[in-house]
Amino acid sequence: MRKSFKLQDLDCANCAAKMENAINEIEGVNSASISFMTSKLVLDANDDQFEQIIGKAQSLISKIEPDCTIVR
Amino acid sequence: MNKKQIHMRNRILIALLCFAFAFVISEFMPLEAWLGSKSAALWVEFALFLIPYLIGGYDVVLKAIKNIGHGQLFDENFLMTVATVGAFALVLFPDSDPHMAEGAAVMLFYQVGELFQSYAVGKSRKSIAEMMDIAPDYANVERDGKLIQVDPYEIAVGDNIVIKAGERVPLDGIVVSGTSELDTKALTGESVPRSIAPGQDIISGCVNLSGKLVVQVTKPFGESTVSRILELVENAADKKAKTENFITRFAKYYTPIVVGIAVLLAILPPLLFGLSWSEWIQRGLVFLVVSCPCALVISVPLSFFGGIGGASRDGILIKGSNYLEVLANTQAVAFDKTGTLTDGSFEVVAVHAQDGYNADELLELAAHAESFSDHPIALSIKRAYSGELDPKRILDPQELSGRGVKATLDSNVVLVGNDKLMNECSIDYMSCELAGTILHVSYNNEYLGHIVIADVIKPIAPVAIAELHEMGIHNTVMLTGDREDVAKAVATEVGVDDYKAQLLPQDKVACVEQLLTQTSEHTHGKGKLAFVGDGINDAPVLARSDIGIAMGAMGSDAAIEAADVVLMDDDPTGVARAIRIARKTMRIVWQNIVFALGVKFAVLILAALGIANMWLAVFADVGVAILAILNAMRAMKVPARDQVSAADVEE
B237 pLDDT exceeds 70? Predict the structure, then answer.
């Protein structure tokens, strides 16, 4: 499944790149892309783990930029 | 500025005032004399500079502490905190001058830079959102004799909607009643309004300028032009350019390496050679300040985003920054003739009557003979005939496949057709020197003359090719299914460098593949081939070329789907404009990369040699970021369109 999410309070371009790398490392993620300019995360991941993966992605994002949240 | 930014700005201003106060006291007041001892004076200075430091940067320090907990060692907050705390801590080394002012200044300038970045990014996000503010909020529907406003999502295909003057067209449809002028600027960049009348297609996103229109909806909102465009532009950011990915990867290694060198620089020389600790720690701190790759990481996507945004304001939709990169390297352009260089509609271009007859008589006969037919050629003759058609004059019309038509008009036989038809009926005919489809007309077995029909070249087409030539793209090729002589005539008039005639649809792919190899060979793999089509029937070719450009795509789903770049209007000069925007964007991207890296490396070298101090490092970090962002924002500015409109060329 491929879905795009808005990221709230994404303020740092370098962080966006780090988040993208980190989310791509999560098991079950086929590809993840974060656009700093549009504050969007496009996530392509296995259907059965999708919810779980979003959760993991959120916790990774919080580690890098504490204010930033995935708008579901 | 939003609330958060205003709060930040005020904090920075207060901190700067405190900093100025502390600076004046420590530099110009005889603190030592007042307090009696040197160390007491130092401690007062320390406290004075700590105030602006904390006001300006407490959140950075807090974030840094939090992030260490998360294992984010190369986080910019952490690096800034270490660098500034380090500067303050130098006071502990008796052999060193105090560096508290620098510590506080680095933090303050860092915050100024951050604020500026957030402001600039917010501004360009907003201006692009405004540019794309073509989504309609409501549609007017008549219910029980009253007009009510309804969410466009709720309108079904076949419903009638009312669009008042000044409103945005919410859904695609056909005009049922009313005439008006449409402003298509948001979609095509074209500023001349377009007139619209009943029976014509109307496209969502345009603005109705004058009259009231009733429109029958032909597509649900989700499939309407406006939704598709918004979706396309929103998703453009997913496809990142190689340069963008390179910078992200570069940043991943740059920071750890610079931090590593900073640590070595601070520790090794004093340990191994017994050099001054404070001196070398200071050099290491300078490294830390420069270790943040922010300027690059932010300015590169900002430039691409600006380029895509600026292009869309000009009616050019680019589906990703990777395509901007390819577009900038375009060295060859192949045009599909019909619909790009020509209108794609047949027109009577000449009527050659034999002596004793005139052109109107010829057209009258031909139009009547063809009156029953809907063939494009028949339609063009009917359009060219200015009089009234009287169907009662026609008897027994027959279509003779591949030859023409035969009918009885006013009890005499009229023949309208090609050379073959004339030969079959043994009528002597004159051949014509003009290229195009030749229709001979005979009446009662007498040859009257011929009508020349051709696909009309867009008046702006030669300008489009000339613009490409001017930009150094000398490999323009026209592909067409037309006969050799027709193709040659069009090619000469338009000014393309080469043409390929008599191509069947499947031949076009092969032809483009051949051009791809040629282009790549001639330019050592660097040059790219763009294919320009009207999006009808050429999806495979659009997909096969390095970059597929679809033209006149307003309303054509297939074209928007298949192409990488979509020109919303019919103007072929859009190709040159798109390439120009792409080149400008890439120039800005590379300027930023070279400038930012150049300054950073220079400061790193100077710092290692002990020449650069923290002030210079702050400039290398914040100053470069600000300059790079300002430069990146230029990409958004697309020059006003050349005033050479189609109308001017006709004159």
Answer: no
Q: Write the single-letter amino acid at B641.
A: R
Domain boundaries, chain A: 2-71
Confirm or reject contact between A46 and chain B (CB < 8 A). no
Region B357-377: mean pLDDT is 84
**Where is pLDDT greater, at B621 or B131?**
B621
Asked if A42 and B63 come within 8 Å (Cβ–Cβ), the reply is: no
Question: Cα-flanking dihedrals φ and ψ of residue B188, to 5°?
Answer: -115, -15
Token pair recorded at residue B588 = 């800005």
Q: Collect contacts of B597-605 with beta carbons under 8 A, ≥24 apart.
A: B597/B296, B599/B624, B600/B290, B600/B624, B603/B286, B603/B290, B604/B258, B604/B261, B604/B287, B604/B290
Asked if pLDDT for residue B646 goes beyond 60, the answer is no
Protein fold of A2-71: Alpha-Beta Plaits (3.30.70)
Which tokens belong to B353? 């009557």
Instruction: State which H helix or E strand residue A43 sits in.
Output: strand A40-45
Q: How far apart are CA B536 and CA B29, in angstroms?
A: 80
Q: Which residues of A touch B301 (CB under 8 A)?
A: 13, 35-37
Per-window interface: A 2-41 vs B, CB < 8 A: 4, 11-14, 17-18, 20-21, 33, 35-40
Main-chain phi, psi angles of B482, to 5 degrees: -70, 165
Strands (E), B77-231: 139-143, 146-150, 160-163, 173-177, 180-183, 194-196, 201-202, 207-208, 213-217
Is 0.90 topped by the overall pTM? no
Can you tell me the distance from the alpha carbon of B651 to that of B646, in angstroms, rounded to the nearest whole number? 9
Residue A39 DSSP SS3:
coil
**pLDDT band (50, 70, 90) for residue B641:** low
Q: Ranked by mean pLDDT, which of B123-137, B373-387, B402-416, B585-599 comes out on top?
A: B585-599
Nearest CA in chain A to B123: A37
CA dist B382 and B364 (Å) reads 9
Q: What is the pLDDT of residue B132?
A: 65
Domains and CATH numbers, chain B: 3-129+239-302+587-636 (no CATH), 139-234 (2.70.150.10), 316-341+458-568 (3.40.50.1000), 344-456 (3.40.1110.10)
Which two three-digit tokens encode residue B229?
Answer: 């465009």
Q: Which residues pair with B217 in a beta bridge?
A: B173
Residue B71 and residue A63: Cβ atoms within 8 Å? yes
Helices (H), ranges, B90-224: 100-131, 185-188
The span from the CA of B277 to the CA of B349, in Å, is 88
Q: At a CB cut-off of 8 Å and minimum separation 6, what does B384 contact?
A: B347, B348, B351, B363, B367, B451
Give the CA radius of gyration of chain B.
35
Contact by Cβ (8 Å): B608, B617: no
CB B441, CB B433: distance < 8 Å: no
Are B334 and B507 in contact by the 8 Å Cβ rule? The answer is no
Find the mean pLDDT for residues A12-36.
87
Cα B304 from Cα B306, distance rounded (Å):
5
Query: Residue B365 CA to chain centroid, in angstroms?
Result: 50
